[in-house]
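User: Hi! Is it possible to get a structure for several chains at once, not just one? Here's what I have:
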Amino acid sequence: MQKAEYLELYHQMVLIRLVEEKAAQLYQQDKIGGFLHLYIGQEAVSTGLISARQPQDRIITAYRDHGVAINCGISAKEVLAELLGKATGCSGGKGGSMHMADVEKNFWGGHAIVGAHLPIAAGLALGDTYQKKDAITVCMFGDGATNIGFFHEALNLSKVWKLPVLWVCENNQYGMGTAVERASAVSEIRQKALGYDMLNSRVDGMDLMAVRQAAQEAMAHVRSGQGPYLLEAITYRYRGHSMGDPERYRKADEVRRWQENDPIGIYRAYLTKKRLATKAELDRLDKQVGAEVLEATQFAEASPEPAPEALYEHIYADN
Amino acid sequence: MARITMREAISKALWEEMERDPNVFILGEEVGVWGGSYAITKGFFDHFGEERVRDTPIAEAAIVGAAIGAALTGLRPVAELMTINFAFAAMDHIVNEAAKLHYMFNGQFVLPLVIRTVSGGGRQLGATHSQTPDAIFAHFPGLKVVSPGTPEDAKGLLKSAIRSQDPVLFIEHATLYQVRGEVPEGDYLTPIGKSKVQRPGRDVTIVTYSKMLEVSTRAAEQLAQEGIEAEIVDLRSLRPLDMSPVLASFKKTNRAVIVEEGWGSFGVGSEVAARIYEQAFDYVDAPIRRVAQKEVPLPYNRALEQSALPQVEDVIAAVKEVL
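Assistant: Yes, the chains can be modeled jointly so their relative placement is included. Here is the combined structure:
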């Protein structure tokens, strides 16, 4: 990677964090409705993973999707506008927090039923295989999704049909408020791949460079036509499951311990140690991102609401 | 015109569409080597190969989910669910995904997807394998639901479904496969969302679809011997529901009986009756009657099962009540 690329990844992580902090603020001001699941703490997983993909590779994820959207190239403007339900949002204001997508950028959503997008991911990969395209599908999901039937049907199918899917479990330690070990027979999620004779590995999801390298290796395997792969990234969400989570299931101390290994902090240390950037440069970048988020917020707030006619648009694709 | 069975008509539609468009492929349980559990895809595996005729594990969510994903890449999958009773295992993908994705992502996602399945009772398969829950699926905007009652419509509707840009649930009936009918030669399309008068009449309107078209037709033939001429409107599509021929017929006869095989509560008959009352109240000369399945899970015993299913005599009795 060139220096600019290293800094671009830093930019993406800080942008995700600041967009999410802004979103929390806007939610408290009642400008965002519904549910809001923040990605703060998990930035390195999506940023590292998506930095390793080719443009033809498809990305699909669950409902904690704002960060993934940004990594896929959706602008902060479109993300914040979607959160505000505006016509300029990436889903025209009809999807909301959990349903962002931009198929031009090969980002296939944003899916809010736990685990349900995994069989769809298998289908995306099937479509590419059928059409002999050199593309893989990267499917992200939480640890909670590995306990539902969809996960098992999809992993089994992907192995039986040798589909080019990289399954990525973001193990953030909790499915809503239930700790992994209280919900899953194995707390090391990658072990579930063994039942499907599927290659697998585990990576520190707080370390961007480690995620990137693990993703490159896993993607090379998947792209080689040898079938699917399960990558488990160990990570942590700093905020509640969604806004309004009383967080009775964990102690403040536990959150603080994880925050000592903050993904942005780790990457800053990496960049300065490798002399890819100075602290002053990074501080300057932080400020730039702050201005970018401010501008994006102004754009979103000034954007129009969807037209009333939008209610009946896109129910069907046929005329 | 050739006189062929419903099974042959559906099979021909699939075969012709696969020959026409290399993006059309089939996936489902036993569709390949076995030849289809109702023999619809017999011979397909050998002719089109295993890439295009894909045997799946017994995993309905994976079947429909994978079909959705493949459709998103521009393919035209035809997923087969062995019976509609198994569609419940794929309900999330039908309802929360297929019916929603186009709308929810503001038109970005396009799903040219067909789910073929088999509905209906009458074959002593017990409560879990004999349901006619068609109306449930017609509840959801975003999904199209069609269910033909004749071989001609089956072929034309399936072709339309395969060429549609939308997810279409194509509901066949297990006891109609051997029914014969005239089918035009060559390529033709029957539009989705268009009801059709299958039998003209002046005295009463019978609204029905699928297997109950056959039952209603037999009832109408018996009624004709008594000088009562029933007009039969075949809905063919449950969503979009085309009321025009129903209302035109009702405004002529002023009396209606709606016949469906599924349970009447919250059913097709309820919906059609409500729309007639809403849109043609001034033409009502008698309370609209619904003929439907008795409100029980279907039993195995032949006599008990038949007593729960709508019969020709039930239709005749209902018609006489509204006259």
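The CA atoms of residues 108 and 244 of chain B lie 32 Å apart. The interface with chain A takes residues 25, 51, 54, 56-57, 59, 61-62, 64-75, 77, 92-93, 96-97, 101-112, 141-142, 144, 164-166 of chain B (CB under 8 Å).

User: Great, thank you!
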